Amino acid sequence: MQVAPLTLVFVGFLFFPLLAIVVVSFWDYTAYTTVPTFVLTNYRDVLSSSVTYTTYVNTFKYAGFTWFFTLTIGFTVAYFLAFHVRTFIWQLVLFLICTVPFLTSNIIRMISWVPFLGRHGIFNSTLQAMGLISEPLEFLLFSDFAVVLAFVHLYTLFMAIPIFNSMMRIDRSLLAAAADCGASDGQVLRDVIIPLSKPGMAIGSIFVVTLVMGDFITVRLMSGGQSASVGLMMMNQIALLQYPAAAANAVILLIVTLLIVMAMVRIVDIRKEL
Amino acid sequence: MMDKGRRPRSFYVLGAFFGVFVLFLYGPLSAIILLSFQGPSGGLTFPMNDISTHWFTALFAQQRVRDFWGAFQRSLALATLVTLLTVVLLLLAGLAFRRRFRGATALFYLAVASLIVPSILISLGIGLMFNILGWETAWYSSALGAHLTWTLPFGVLIMFAVFNRFNPSYEEAACDLGASGWQTIMGVVVPIIAPSLIGIALFGFTLSYDEFGRTLLTAGVDNSLPLEIYGMTTNITSPALYALGTLTTGFSFGVIAIFLAVSLTLRKQGHRSRWPRAATPSRAAMALDNPAWAEAARERRCATAPLERPIAH
After folding, report:
1. Residue A136 or residue A148, greater confidence
2. Chain A residues with CB inside 8 Å of B226's CB?
3. Do residues B207 and A99 make contact, with C-beta atoms less than 8 angstroms apart?
4. Distances from the Cα of B84 to the Cαs of A13, A35, A116, B89, B204, in angstroms?
5. CATH fold label, A50-273
6. Domains of chain A, residue spans
7. Contacts of A73 in chain B (CB under 8 A)
8. Residue A131: how many CB atoms within 10 A of its CB?
């Protein structure tokens, strides 16, 4: 009984909407209207278009780069907080410092890269002042580089928190035991800490990859509309009122995302980790 | 690596890395805050030309045509509603999670699904569902539901974490000493999980207040603040945009500060009172010298405390 309201919200605003997407993905549409019927043309259009595949490749590329950088940075930050900061109060303070930006507007955080990456931004003027380049680098803003940079900036915390959580649950006597047996710090890291923080890495990876796979606004803003992602492709169809086409794309995106997540969940039982 | 004394060299390397990471998080934000206070001739990049509040005034002058205040009020109202619903629903659910119940696993996976389904799908799905049903989308109905699919699962994860560590003997003790079900919940369970509830409320508020993807197709005719901000990014190319960023970031910082202050106050009160607190389980016992008494007090502490102090509601 006590979980009834919670369940109702999930059924009403998650299950039924997804069902609506599946239903509409089989509808037909013309330039002006949507026709409730049962056709497979939307899926055929999506699957036979080469644009779909290049867009997916591009989105996977973003997801891959973002995953790599957030994992590397998130792991290092979590490792520092968990094993090198000695008092709980400092761990808490430094942890809060990392968390606060995550609680502010994503769009503003994207815009905040403009003074850095623009043609006359800080990077370009610094490099020019140092005499390293003569012309401003054009690839900084409105490029794939900017997109990945923004993703890493926005989502590293989603990776750092679960890894930190896993690391804090490692029994410290294991590390002492490894050291007593003559393991170097590097060996302790490789053979004890990394294997035991894998669940945190898996949870963080699920967060980051699903966030990137469904994104459209970061790609739109940071690439200046020059790059494509699956989410952006759907938004364009929605803007053209081609809802059935967008719905078919949504179903495929959902399946792809779930497959990726299932592959990751095989590594870890999330529920045991909380 | 954990022993006291001299820090290894790796500490300084990692510390420097951490410092760079914090700079990476805060640098861009501080840049736009600085640049928003430029003089009228300022541009989108450094160096700063003069110092003034020109662009803040300019922002509000432009707002005569746009609905900035309306959007802000709607986002504030929506975030408050989302926060209240999230906390109440999760408190209820949390009480159920104290024990294993049928469907707990299914509910858990539903929550996980809600986290990993891309926000654009929730947005599109709710939009289509309202369309099929012939309902109008609006911020207080469709967008509210869309936001709950984002804030609730975070809370469910936190609740599962809390109750995986929850010791049922506290409640049993309260029960043995004659506390009613309601007294047990308000006097024992809620104080123990209060810090987590504040965390859930903070997450609920900020996630909803800044949410873009889930609002896009569900907000109806009236924009929420993030939608309004996004609209401005495409047509304002002056430091007024940074002024907007400074204002919304300042507001977010204010909200976070309030939540932190509330949680610190609760913590202090917790130390003063003899209410049961999970973080300091042995305080009462430590106050007593006699080992036998200490043992008895340790047995009793969580049960007796709420009864020694009248429960006020």
Report:
1. A148
2. 105-107
3. no
4. 18, 40, 39, 8, 9
5. MetI-like fold (1.10.3720)
6. 50-273
7. 21
8. 7
Predicted TM-score (pTM) of the model is 0.83
Give the largest CA-CA distance in chain A. 74
The DSSP result for A150-193, as a single string, is HHHHHHHHHHHHHHHHHHHTS-HHHHHHHHHTT--HHHHIIIII
Q: Would you call A188 an interface residue with chain B, using a CB distance cutoff of 8 Å?
A: yes
Intervals of chain B under pLDDT 70:
1-6, 42, 62-66, 236, 270-313
**pLDDT tens, residue by residue, A21-72:** 888 888 888 767 777 878 788 888 888 888 889 999 999 999 999 999 999 9
Of A10, A116, A253, the CB nearest to B110: A10
Residues of chain A in contact with residue B204, where contact means CB-CB under 8 angstroms, are none
Q: What is the DSSP letter of A261?
A: H
Expressed in angstroms, the distance from the first to the final Cα of chain B is: 50
Neighbours of A43 (CB within 10 A): 17
Length of chain A: 274
Among B199, B241, B206, B210, CA closest to B35: B241
Q: What is the pLDDT of residues A236-257, one digit of tens each?
A: 888 888 888 888 999 999 999 9
User: Please, what is the Cα angle at A237 between B222 and A11, to 5 degrees?
Assistant: 65
Q: Which residues have a Cβ under 8 Å from the Cβ of B70 and sit 6 or more positions away? A: B222, B223
Q: Are A249 and A21 in contact (CB under 8 A)?
A: no
Q: Name every chain B residue with its beta carbon within 8 A of the beta carbon of A100.
A: 253, 256
Residue type, A242: Q
> Does any CB of chain B come closer than 8 Å to the CB of residue A182?
no
For residue B155, the model assigns a pLDDT of 85
CA distance A36 to A28: 6
pLDDT of residue A165: 86
A–B interface: beta-carbon pairs under 8 A = 252
Residue B88: name the closest of A91, A79, A9 by CA: A9
| C-beta separation of B42 from B50 below 8 A | yes
Q: Which residue of A has its CA nearest to B86?
A: A6
The helices-and-strands tally (H runs, E runs) of chain B is 14, 0
**Side chain identity, residue B217:** L
Share of chain A above pLDDT 70, in %: 96
Helix (H) / strand (E) element for A28: namely: strand A28-29
Whether A98 has its CB under 8 Å from any CB of chain B: the answer is yes
Q: Domains of chain B (ranges plus CATH)?
A: 66-235 (1.10.3720.10), 282-313 (no CATH)
The tokens describing A97, both together, are 């410092």
The residues, ordered by sequence, that sit 6+ positions from B16 with a Cβ below 8 Å of its Cβ are none
